[in-house]
Design goal:
The chain is α+β, with helices and mostly antiparallel strands. It contains eight helices and 14 strands. The strands form two sheets. It has a ten-stranded antiparallel sheet with strand order 3-4-7-9-8-13-14-12-11-10, with helices on both faces. The chain is globular and about 60 Å long. The termini are far apart.
């Protein structure tokens, strides 16, 4: 079983997953093979090629049979897993604890790692899905989130998506991932600190500022999508609920419809302007144990980052990013990229 280690100097954590099965060469070979649709383990009819499913939305059939619209399976190569509790890593109440070893902190590699297969079709993706298909994906995010939240040893649940090889997706078939962590990650801690340090919600402030500075791409009755003040990637966007709300998982069905609409339109613009770019997105919501009052002041959001270049030595060595596209210009270009193909060939 792996470990989650705190860097002794920097505020960052590293999961030492040490999966013997996952030899780098075998991994790359697998990558090449599955670009061939016939070998794709995520296509309908290939259910036996994944670990047994743990959740699904289906129109017919039993688990691990065709007839599904969304399918959830454990990650075949999990970064963290729920087995192998080590007594050393537990406190007297049986909860996961942080261990100090004289140099730094660590946790045992406890957690969850799930894959959400977003569609039975190999060629479908966010650039060509309709609103209803996107709504199913986000409804499954909500369902998995509510389920995993019951595990009191998970302090944070991160839902994210990699699309395209250079964005880190090992399979071309559209999918997202969910990782449940026994700690609150530094990115979220940083945001909670920013909330603590300001009188008004810094996210609500950012929305207002984007309005003043013409960085709003779109808004509907419940959501807005904007380019942030200091985006680290070209054409980076953030989706915010207009109303100040801490938890994504409390989204209702009418808001879900508005969210799916704004996601669909955003990705169609990306497609029109940047032609199916590789991208990452992640969903930031309040930690799972909203005991502290500060968690209630969180403002959930989704960050979308097209991957148009690889970050290099300067970014890694300095923590400073270079973005060649001014966010106002990015919004202007995306606004103009309006017309899109409504239908797509299967
Ligand atoms: Zn496929
Ligand atoms: Zn807010």
């Amino acid at each position: 079983m792996g470990e989650i280690r705190k860097d002794p100097i920097h505020n960052r954590w590293v999961i030492i997953a040490d999966e013997r099965k996952k030899r780098p060469h075998a991994f790359y070979r697998e990558l090449e093979e599955v670009s061939d649709k016939r070998k794709c383990p995520f296509c309908e009819g290939k259910e036996k090629k994944t670990p047994p499913e743990i959740d699904s939305f289906r129109v017919r059939g039993k688990p691990d049979e065709p007839g599904w619209r969304i399918r959830v399976v454990p990650n075949k190569y999990p970064a963290l897993n729920p087995e192998g509790f080590n007594p050393e890593g537990l406190n007297p109440k049986g909860k996961i604890r942080k261990i100090f070893d004289g140099l730094s902190y660590r946790y045992h590699g406890y957690g969850r790692h799930e894959v959400i297969i977003e569609t039975p079709h190999h060629k479908k993706n966010l650039f060509n899905m309709d609103k209803e298909e996107i709504s199913l994906i986000f409804s499954m995010y909500r369902k998995r989130y509510l389920y995993l939240k019951k595990d009191k040893n998970l302090k944070y649940i991160l839902i994210f998506k990699n699309y395209g090889n250079i964005a880190g997706a090992s399979l071309p078939h559209s999918h997202s991932q969910v990782i449940g962590l026994p700690l609150i990650p530094p990115e979220i801690e940083e945001e909670l600190m920013a909330i603590k340090d300001s009188i008004k919600c810094p996210f609500c402030n950012s929305i207002q500022r984007a309005r003043d500075e013409e960085r709003i791409l779109e808004r509907n009755k419940d959501f807005t999508v904007l380019a942030p003040y200091a985006p680290i990637a070209p054409y980076e966007l953030v989706v915010y609920p207009l109303e100040h709300k801490p938890c994504f998982e409390e989204i209702n069905d009418s808001e879900m419809d508005s969210l799916s609409e704004i996601i669909r339109d955003t990705f169609r613009r990306f497609n029109k302007l940047l032609e199916n770019p590789p991208f990452n997105y992640f969903l930031h919501t309040s930690p799972t144990t909203p005991t502290a009052k500060i968690y209630k002041n969180y403002h959930w959001h989704i960050v979308i980052m097209p991957k148009l270049g690889l970050s290099a030595g300067f970014e890694m060595g300095s923590g400073i990013y270079i973005n060649p596209v001014d966010p106002r210009k990015a919004v202007k270009e995306l606004k103009e990229a309006k017309e899109y193909k409504e239908e797509v060939d299967e």
